[in-house]
Amino acid sequence: MTRRILLIALLCLPALIAQINPVQELIEAARADSPKLGELLTRKDSFGYRIPEMAGRDGVAVWGQEFLFAVESAADATVVIDGEPAVAMKRVAGTNYWYLLRMLRLGTTHQYHYFANGREIGGYQVAGYNPDSYPQPGVPHGKLSDRKTLVSKVYPGMSSNYWVYVNAGADLMNGAPLMVWQDGETIVGNQDWMRLRLQNVSDNLVAQKKIPPMIHVLIQPGTGGQEAQAMRSIEYDSVSDRYGKYLLDEVLADVEKTYKIRKDAYSRAIAGASSGAICAMNVAWYYPDQFSRVLSHIGSYTALQWHPERNEDGGYIVALKVRRDTKKNLRVWMSDGSDDQEAGSGSWPLNNIQLANSLKLKGYDFHFRFGVSLHSIAQGALDLPESLTWLWRDYDPAKTQQTYQTEETERAKPMFRVSITNRDAW
Q1: pTM of the model
Q2: Fewer beta carbons below 10 Å: N end or C end of the chain?
Q3: Structural domains in the chain plus CATH codes
Q4: Residues sharing a CB contact under 8 Å with residue 391, sequence separation 6 or more, in sequence order
């Protein structure tokens, strides 16, 4: 009997070893200066992504306080972290990969820039993740579906993919709460570990009973069709009810062939970053009977799809619609940063501030986190355990509706004001 148990344990051992988190495995190899490091940096997941991506964006792997900076360069590489002096990186033997392992502060974001031959070769921002962004002992994992592909009629001929992630314990008999995520391809495989860590965060929060177990629909922007090869901006940045119709009549209708989803807006949320954020806000705005909770990261409330020749407003109109139209029953978490981008289509920081003030003026249940972030998901990833908890706070599965009110703590605060910090006043 003992020999049989030992044999079973030995047979299971490779599977247990294979379950080590890929980020953790990489950090441990870098710490030990392992010969395996080059192989791990080269390795791609089934979606074709590495940890980290060594082209600047998503160029840091984080596990606890250990940050692995890595970049690909034929010449000697250095890295500047949070504006400190450049630090030389170490070459992985036999490759053009360069790395540096550093201990950094958690609970904040860190900016980095890679250099070689005196010029910048990439840079971005990374989160110092909170504890709920890591696997916790005893927490059941949800299940990710296979990829599903649809061809649209709302956007004629457009093809798009989606995945479904179901938290453990979701009520699939009576219907589970729903959360829809734009840019869903960034929430599967290695990309989720490099960005939001949504799968892991949601599992942890469900186990702590801070959010209900739910069905997450992860939608990738479409391609092809009659309008354009790359459809993301047309889908996401257009201020209309069109994407909501696509979502409800095509994507969710297909999801509901397999999963039972609650129909009440009280049990439905929608989320996105950048153009995906304004998309989420638009869907809830035009379909408040379908979605009542909105998560908006670095929202592109600008003129990316402004077409005066067709009498179509751009995203800047959203803040004005909130101010002037009848109040809708929505709960909204927003985040942005002072270092977000300025472009010909508008100002990301100023338009986010204007939307936040519009929500405040009209008495919405909203929260606005304004930090120093770039146009990066790092701040949203850092805040995700808090933002999801806030968005789903006091959720009661026995209810189908709730009238949202501004929190008293927010009601007592002043309007957001803009001050210029990098120039003299006169």
Answers
A1: 0.94
A2: C
A3: 17-128 (2.60.40.10), 132-411 (3.40.50.1820)
A4: 269, 293, 295, 331, 333
